[in-house]
Write a structure and sequence with these properties.
Radius of gyration: 23 Å
Helix content: 25-40%
Largest sheet: 5 strands, antiparallel
Number of strands: 7
Number of helices: 5
Distance between the termini: 52 Å
Length: 238
Amino acid sequence: MKLRNINRGLVLGGVLALGVVCYTAYDNNQFKTSKPEIEQTMRDYIADLTSANVGSSDKLKSQLTDFVNKNYTDYTTSDNEYASSKSGLLDEINQAEVATQGGDITSAEYDIKEMSINKSGADGAKVTMIYNVCYDVSKGDPTFLTTNGISTMTSGNYTNSDNYEPSTSSYKAIFSYENAEFYLLRTSDGWKIATSSDYGYGEDYSFDDNNSDSVADESKAESEIVPDSSAEKSDSVE
């Protein structure tokens, strides 16, 4: 009787272990098929973020609010205390003095340099990216949204030009994000951002109107060249 019970336990344990292995293999395979959708979600996210920062300051708050509502999902738990969530970003936007800033972003372009996609949990994904954004600024130091929340340009700290006057000078602001990190969740409306953050970025300002420095000088802006087959590009997507 004892041997029979032991054998029965071994059989049940083996069946359970086999079920776990089969489910894990199925789950991993399902995630692999989701990678192109996740990649496109992130490309659309960067494009939307860049364009949401462009325009007159009186419309900026509504543009940024619409961007967050479109691209983020409600999420309250995170192991990363520095990451930004939907509710946190909306609070920052509502409190920011975007309507009283001294200048506007008139145009922008971006370049996605690297992207890595990995599974995180049952219905989650972790994405890390390296990308650049170049903003054309009419004057002053506009407020703008990043993956980490509201920020303000600091052009006056970076110029060596004697002719630069923040209240009247136009310039290019180039931001290099070297380690942007995103946690995504699968929702009924597709993949959405749960949290976003970046760990260190570079900023550079070009004050000469004849200087063509921009992200497009190194690599044509992603917003201009994204093909239908973008998911097939070897963009370091793992």
